[in-house]
Records
---
Amino acid sequence: MYDLVIIGAGPAGLTTSIYASCFKLKHLVVAETIGGQLLLAPDILNYPGFTNIAGKELADKMLTQAKMRGGEFLADRVVAITKNSDQTGFLVKDMSANVYETRAVVLASGTERRKLQVPGEMEYTGKGVHYCATCEKQDFDDKICAVVGGANSAVGAAVELAQAAQKVYILYRGSELRGDPVWLEQITNHPKITVLYNTVIIEITGDGERLTSIKLLTNGANSSELKVDKLFIEIGGVPGTALVTQLGVKMDPGGYIQVNERLESSVPGIFAAGDLVTHEYSIEQISTAVGLGARAGASVFAYLKKIKAPSVWGSSQIPR
Ligand SMILES: Cc1cc2nc3c(=O)[nH]c(=O)nc-3n(C[C@H](O)[C@H](O)[C@H](O)COP(=O)(O)OP(=O)(O)OC[C@H]3O[C@@H](n4cnc5c(N)ncnc54)[C@H](O)[C@@H]3O)c2cc1C
């Protein structure tokens, strides 16, 4: 019986593990990828303590620290969480059919890439249609690229692509980009970047082997075709909450996990931290994921004391 199983090893899950160790909680971290979205971020400029650090390096540092403090890690995908037989905890099942019993769960499984849901998207995914510009280590020399989206990830992708591409279009359904000023100033008057506002993609077409063009609708009426070699869909993520819907965990209207200030979900013993938590607490950044992870570790300890879990009952442990 574990005190805690943490699902996910992005910054939220890794920090929860570090804090769980501070409270001497017997815990297991199960994660498909160690580092989560950090692995996709080449240059992190806004994480305190580092003027510029590659996401992979930051993930490695967090993992080293979590393991040094006593965290146990397993690389696998969790496929189900159910109540245990006497309803005092949970059973966490992974893809390899291993089952782990635990008194509490912290769900730190982040978000999955949002899809456009237009004809041709599935067919050309990986054949010119991609969901992360920074992850594609391809040669963009003289290519015509389009990026869908209006927030930091789309604007940042456009700037990065424009270093090599012949032309980059940003396609945005709104009338004003939502990126941070630090990103927006980089595209203002950029010779290779053009923003098409009030524009949506209605179809992705190709020659069967690869993407060749996209059909656009502007201002809800005017349709046109744009020849592109690469299309990057950078429209954010969908919270990965499927594992806990059957348990009755409540979501907010955006599909993010509804938690209280102690990061408790609506089901006692299930906590959440990181990008999948309601935006009342998270802004989908590393620093918020880390902060929520720390709080989740402390809250699980308080919960275990409240339910008089034998491993912590009577302990006056405070985090160090
Ligand atoms: C390209 C890119 C650049 C970015 N740049 C920055 C930046 O410069 N600064 C910044 O602050 N933020 C940046 N971000 C955002 C930041 O990376 C995220 O906010 C942060 O990683 C969220 O942390 P998390 O722990 O909540 O989730 P994630 O990092 O998404 O981690 C989720 C974890 O859950 C695991 N998981 C999911 N489902 C399962 C399952 N069923 N079973 C087991 N494991 C599962 C995953 O494998 C992973 O380990 C960037 C994101 C991207 C994509």
Note: The helical segments are 11-22, 55-69, 121-124, 152-161, 181-187, 242-245, 286-306.
---
Amino acid sequence: MAGKKIDKASISTVLYTEKGWNRLDKTADSNQYTSIFVLTDSNTNRHCLPLFENHFQHPYTPMTMEAGETHKHLATCEDLWASLSEQGADRNSLLINLGGGVVTDLGGFVASTYKRGIDFINIPTSLLAMVDASVGGKTGVDFQGLKNQIGIIKEPEFVVIDDVFLQTLPQNERRSGYAEMLKHGLIADADYFSLLSSNSIAKHDQMMGHIRHSVSIKSKVVTEDPFERGLRKILNYGHTLGHAIETHFLEHPTKKILLHGEAIAIGMIMEAELSFLTTNLTAEERDLIKTVFSSIYDPVSFTESDIIAIKGLLKHDKKNQSNQVRFVLLQAIGKPVIDCLVREEDINAAFQFYAD
Ligand SMILES: NC(=O)c1ccc[n+]([C@@H]2O[C@H](COP(=O)([O-])OP(=O)(O)OC[C@H]3O[C@@H](n4cnc5c(N)ncnc54)[C@H](O)[C@@H]3O)[C@@H](O)[C@H]2O)c1
Ligand SMILES: [Zn+2]
């Protein structure tokens, strides 16, 4: 790879509210598509499709899948490919994905592979899908117990974001997305972190501005480093420990289910302590990070055997190179450092810091 030029990614346009709906309307009017399909899951079919229809008055064929990560697999794709085929979708058909990250990831994959690829448009309806899954073109499904194991990078034609959908999003799902937004502040914009920290998560009138800001932070990072060779790794702050914690809780059904954002919120508190111990984050900023996340997310307790299992899972983290666990840490709020190695005793200290 040495000397190979890394192209900047061209990423899809994200259009907000009226602009987005107008573009969608024009696209459907343009006669460039022979037929239009709209994919929802069982929840967005009930809550979001009626709102979508307030803005979209063109003929379309609805398709729906069961809600939830457990349905993000190839069998669901097969059903949808069959359904597209039976209903006469051809190479000039369009798929609109209306749902959370599961629907936009899986629908994007179904569209990208049907007849070697048809166009798709994403309309994310969860906060997480708006601020995170909407940018970067990652599509795919889980396979043999591994998340996002099969998939391709393919950008949608464009993305429409409208916070009207958030009205029906359960509060815990909202908190899950908010964790990614707080992360955007921690890795790129200290003022944004402090603004989000001082705002109530339920304050709806300011959410749209925050979503735009988060999308712009993620877009900038992804554009600079589309293949995750360097800068893009900063998006993994809180995710090294967070993923291990998420996986551990998933593998132990007797434990409470942790949503992705809830797990990475814990990861961000612990990695703040690692940052204090490794990259000179000040104690004040470390404590501030803990205070902010603890005020939003319920505490979770870890037994000794949980900690051993989670440390075991860290070793399988996909971000590892040459068998060493690498972390994104902070020098200060807004100033990340990639590829940091930490000592095992510091990981123990991070669990202790979280529990205290
Ligand atoms: N492509 C990417 O870059 C990227 C980035 C982050 C996450 N992801 C993927 O996204 C998925 C997680 O996304 P998610 O949290 O949106 O999960 P999800 O799609 O499962 O949505 C969460 C829950 O909220 C429901 N829901 C969604 N919008 C709703 C609304 N407006 N009203 C009521 N209920 C609603 C869904 O039916 C589901 O039950 C994971 O599979 C993850 O791998 C992808
Ligand atoms: Zn995440």
Note: Residues 260-278 form the longest helix (19 residues).
